[in-house]
């Protein structure tokens, strides 16, 4: 067997190892979440003024499995990020290792910040608007599975959007994005952010503003961080050329 084939097999074996660790972590977190699923359920619905309903016995199992799965996946995110870094680490230089290692805690913090923003700010705004919209016209009755699907739609997108500064920094370090290009296309980016914010928030001015302002702020922060990374990149390239 050639050295190239041996090297490929080593990579595949390492990849299999990382995937097994991720799956093992997910299973452990899933079992732990399922054990405490009632406490998780009570915490999520504690601010609701109504009792959620189910349409059949199997819906109870479905809701329990969905809750345990979502919580387990969220807890597995740090493990996934770490295993990806450990897999690509041998191919990185010392400088690249230090650079990418710093992204791990930052990505986790931003993910949790986006999740918290969606759950504690956007979700109550949307629910209050919907309750007010229904008013005396309808009898409010939410099924459990539909409610939790709604919660996921109001939180997961923000956990992804809040990763924007980190993604911009990474793309800038690769030379794909420049702060000048981001500043030049600011008006298009703002338009896109406003459209997305209006679509996912209730149709009233205050709710729109509360969603739009943090996302616009994130874009401006991304430009500032891109400038810092870009300057360091240029400085490092000049030093390498001089050597």
Explain how this protein is built.
This protein is mainly alpha-helical and 243 residues long. It has a domain at 163-243. It is 83% helix and 0% strand. The protein contains nine helices and no strands. It has helices spanning 3-35, 37-44, 57-88, 94-134, 144-161, 164-173, 179-184, 186-200, 205-242. Helix 3 (57-88) packs antiparallel against helix 4 (94-134) and helix 4 packs across helix 5 (144-161). It starts with a helix and ends with a helix. The mean pLDDT is 83.
Largest sheet, in brief, is: none
Percent of residues in β-strands: under 5%
| Derived structural class | mainly alpha
End-to-end Cα distance: 41 Å
Helix content: over 70%
Task: Report the strand count.
Answer: 0
Mean pLDDT: 83
Rg, rounded, reads 23 Å
* Series of H and E elements: HHHHHHHHH
Coarse shape: flat
Low-pLDDT windows of residues: none
SS field, number of helical segments: 9
